[in-house]
Amino acid sequence: MERICAKCHQSKPIEEFLQTSSPFHPGGYTIYCTNCLEEMVPPDDLRAVDKLMAWLDWPFLVPQWTKCYRNAKSQALHLYKQLMKDRPQYQTLDWKETNDKWKEAMELGVMDEKIPDINQAWLREMKLKWPADVERTVEDYRYLEDFYNDLISTQNITSATQRDDAKRLCEVGLLATKKIRQGLPAKDEMAGLMAI
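Above: the chain sequence. Below: its structure as tokens.
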């Protein structure tokens, strides 16, 4: 059985299309072939992949997707398709069910534990963005990111110098907060905050 792809307009075997129970796809298969979908959806953009999975009504299993991406890069969808086909436990899942589980993990603050590959990538990114002579914890990086994003969104910070000053303010704020929590005097750090 053949089907014509709505994007590349080539007639291809039905196996080159993704099978789905989504009502958006006549005949139980996507209107686009897997190759075209891979061209349309960047595999490293998890939001775009999530939208694709919602459109397909496929479960978006982020740890499995990141493994597929790590192993196959631009061909991650082909590998994920094979994983969905080969594992019976995934065939009964749909996008809403898995999305509800991700929402719950986010609300409980355990998202990092559910996606270790992404957590490691985030930590590498944070170490580059916030270099330090001392080892920082995940909580330190979250504090820095939250403080910095709050400054950027509430203050008129437009130049590179202002962004550098905002980062310094965040770092001094982190030091002051840690000392205060330990019951230690933070006079020097508070003076540093005022100087920035």
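Residues 38 and 75 are 7 Å apart (CA to CA).
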